[in-house]
What we know:
By secondary structure, the protein is α/β, with parallel strands linked by helices. Helix content is 40%, strand content 9%.
Amino acid sequence: xNRNYILLTVLMLVLAVGTLFLTSDDEPKxxxxxxxxxxxxxxxxxxxxxxxxxxxxxxxPSLLMVDVRPAxxxxxxxxxxxxxxxxxxLLNDGNLGYFGVPGIKVVFISNDDIRADQTWVLTxxxxxxxxxxxxxxxxxWMQTIIDPAQPNADAxxxxxxxxxxxxxxxxxxxxxEAATPEGDNVEVQVRRREKSNVAAGGC
Length: 203
């Protein structure tokens, strides 16, 4: 997706969100627009699908995945352990209490980056720390974790190691068997586990 398009979308959202709170006497502390713009251009606000998969597999207690898609989409498919808070409901009573907890890494998830990016901008505008976006969203998750592409035989070893992890993660999340072509020495790095149902809550 065009980076300029994403930045333009984010900037428009920032301006819109800023007007929402102008007349509120009890508004939360907000960061300055200049500081927010500096945060927006930082790549550290993203985590990869591989990082999220690893945290889930390891049962990382610091991970809280927040799926910001509409409830109907969340019910069709969601990452195990993720919590559904649609973007439109983010400011409802009680929902903001999930964020800004010391030691908790909140990862926003949507089908792609757009809704998750908008949610991230909103929370940052409110001065909430410890929030991230899963880069590429569930579309990227499907490409890298659920149906990973095998690298060419002459690809660097790091690519083959990443593929081995992704095949192991595929088994973990789908229960699929580790079927590999004859002569393909892929060492699966994650043991198979019974697939669990999606839980309504954090990891």
